[in-house]
Amino acid sequence: MEEVVLIEQPQSGHVIKSRPYRLSCKAVNARKIRFKCNNKWLDEARYESVLGTDPGTQLPYMQGSVEITRQEVELGSHLEEFACQCYASGASDSHVVRSDPARIRIAYMRKHFVQTPTSDRVPEGSTVQLHCIAPESDPKAQLTWLKDGVELEKSVDSNVIYGNDGSLIISAARLRDSGNYTCEATNIANRRSTDPATLSVYVNGGWSVWSSWTGACAADCVALRRALESDAGSEVIPRLRRTRTCNNPAPLNGGAYCSGEEEEFRSCNLTCRLDGRWSPWSDWSPCSPTCHRFRTRTCTSPPPINGGRPCAGRELETVPCSEDYCIPSTAPQPRLANDAAVYGGLACVLVLLAIIMALCTALLCKRNRGKKGSVKNIYYAETGAHVRRVLLEQQQKALLADDCTKPPPIGSQFFTLGSTCSPSPMHPSMTLRSAKSAYSGYSANRNAGSRAALITECSSNSSSGGGKRTLIRTSSNYSDDENYATLYDYLDEKAVGCLETSQAVLAAQVDQSGARLQLRKCGASLLIPENALDSDRMIYLAVSDQLADRPQLQPGESALSSVAVLGECEGEPASPARVMLKPLILSFRHCASVFPRDNWSFVLYADEGFGWQRVLTVGEENLNSTMYVHMEKPGRSDGGMGWCHVMLENFARVMLAGKPRRASVTACKRVHLAAYGPSERPRGSSFELRIYCVPETGAAMENVAKQEQHGRLLAESEHFLLNEKGDLCFCVEDVTDGFSIRGSAVVEIPDTHHQWCSQNGLHCSLTVCSDTNRPVEEFLARIVVYQKTNNAERHVLQVRFENSIYDKPPPEEDRTVTADFHLPLEVKDELSRLLDPPTDPGRDWRALARKLHTDRYIQYFATRPGCSPTTLLLDLWEARECGSRRAAHDLLQTLRVMGRPDAVVLLEQYLSHFSYAS
């Protein structure tokens, strides 16, 4: 009997939706070929058979094939792998040959890339690496790179290298390498591309060599004296000059201009005897705290030469400020006559201080005794397990108090926005007053299984002179039952009155269900996770933009955010040693520019009740660090790169500061530009145009909006990159015929005055005159804003009074308290149970930290006593994804990439049972 031999076995492969997969089998001396898939024989009517003779052996063979559809694989692979085998037999079925199993899988490619390339600006000659990791796929996707829509071939350009991980490496960037790069993943199932990443290659300018000294030093002494006496200035004194040009190389593609001067002068050695003469007076300084301003001049135009006489007169001139500019806080005191008077005055002061301290001690003791026996100002928790949430909102009518600085709108001038109001009343213990009212309204707002009660508080105008307090009640459509929350907490009159207008406060009664407090306009939020507090607590979130609230920074450091405060209201029961059972996440905006180049070294300052401390430097944390800081990376579609998230374990006030990491590379701040004008048609022939330049911290921009609540926003621009050094210039161009700018149309603010917006920003005022009494609605102009050290960063404000795009939008809800989380507590606990065990670093909670980009100091999550690392990571993820509509779906994709089908099934079950907005 002739032996049946398989000479071609079926191969493993993939089936796609539009094309089935063909299995083929070939055997010598075979008379019958059948196929078996997942232990089931396929219908023989589907087979295609071909008989022939092998040309090499001259033996007869039979070749059979069958097509496998996607539906068969889906139905057969839900329990096990879909595998098929070929069976070949001779004239009788007694001798059967079986092939090896051929495994058939469904080809697919997920939608989202694991890592996508990001835009970058690099200098010429530097090495560039664009990262790209393909989506999860089967079979494995092949990566190709396209530049401006054309595929890059590494064999053509030796400067381009394809990395083993799929990244694109340009060994030495050239100007022609600038363009839009796209990563493309391809397999038999699909083809997907990333969004284009822009690569900009620039060339920084370099100086040429100095030219030779030019000029002559010979001078007629008599003629020189006459010229100086005729106020010709020191320019008539002969001197030598040499120049250089920024063309070695010239700056290209936005590269930095050469730093330094283009020309240099050297004084000549004169034999003439010349008297000293005064230079012109400097500009008047801003008004000082003592309500004076001054100007100076120097004896350098020219200085005395060869025994000449010095200048006669004063080099400093001081004048008092006008009453409209500032009001002196104290009257000048007469100078003490002699030392005896000094000692006598000091003795009197010491005696008075001793008396005041004794009185304060007695009052405090009396107050403490009164608190023990009185119940009027104690907050009583209601019975029941429901959540009560109270929103305390202060209605503020103006940005600055009456005693703050207000410059006169004359000509064009600039000044800082730093407030001179009294210091903030925030006590170092971070507490606010709370009281119980007998006249409480009722309201309930059901949200995610919790009850939240919101209350708006208004304080009476300070000019009314009364001690009146108003409580606005909200209507209710429910019956009076135990599900209502009693609204009786509101701020004490003194507490409301002493809060400065540059502060925003939001308080809420929080229980074990957690809460999310948001001050949207001020750019701050607080996430209180579930079971984070030991009991019901009245917690508040506050933001202050006052300079007096800031810590004393070290030399070279600059403030990058407002002061964010997390505290507990007064009147709460005595707090135990540990109120927080796990960290709370405080989020706030900062103005540091981390894209396209991050040169910041970030420092976190915190005051936990013992004064400001420099608690950590980001990137240098250790086991003693009690806080964790997460800086959002650039490239997020929701603009999250301007946010800082801090995980705290105690009540505190915090502020982010920073300094340049390398002195040779410029660090930038992101500032917001806005131009305001009159909201109504001015009565006269002129009006004022006000231009603001403030840090993008949220609170600073909100202060400008409040100050200009009676003005009209004409133009604005964001993400202007401001360097520490370099004059800031405002240039008004293309002014409509019939209008003119009073004074100069160019305002230059020296870097010594704008101070890198460290005083909460700048305000430049320009006066526009109508030469022909044309209506203000016809005024058009362009305001070009640039910095001398960074000519590539130019923003243009198109000022149009007739444009309505900047009209005030309807007011949005600024202060919100919600209890909605992306995932319920039960799902988070189950995910923690699955991911907490340290099994595989590529598949447990450590992999989740890497996928969420929160693994800079991963030891923090592993060393919190009594806390699950996965739970802490998900709490931080909840804070980062605030407002995201796809947060849970993106987390599901992350778990798929990690290779955790158990966690994927858990999350898919939750998303399938609950309506989740995609």
Automatic annotation (TrEMBL):
UniProt keyword terms in alphabetical order: Developmental protein, Disulfide bond, Glycoprotein, Immunoglobulin domain, Membrane, Receptor, Signal, Transmembrane, Transmembrane helix
Which CDD domains does this one have?
Death_UNC5-like (cd08781)
Report membrane topology. Single-pass type I membrane protein
Q: Does Transmembrane count among this protein's keywords?
A: yes
UniProt entry tagged with the keyword Ribosomal protein: no
Death domain mapped to chain residues: 830-911
Where is it predominantly found?
membrane
A Gene Ontology cellular-component term: plasma membrane
Q: Which GO terms describe its biological process?
A: motor neuron axon guidance
**UniProt record similarity statement:** Belongs to the unc-5 family.
The name of this protein is: Netrin receptor UNC5
Name its species: Ancylostoma ceylanicum
Tell me the gene name: Acey_s0059.g3065
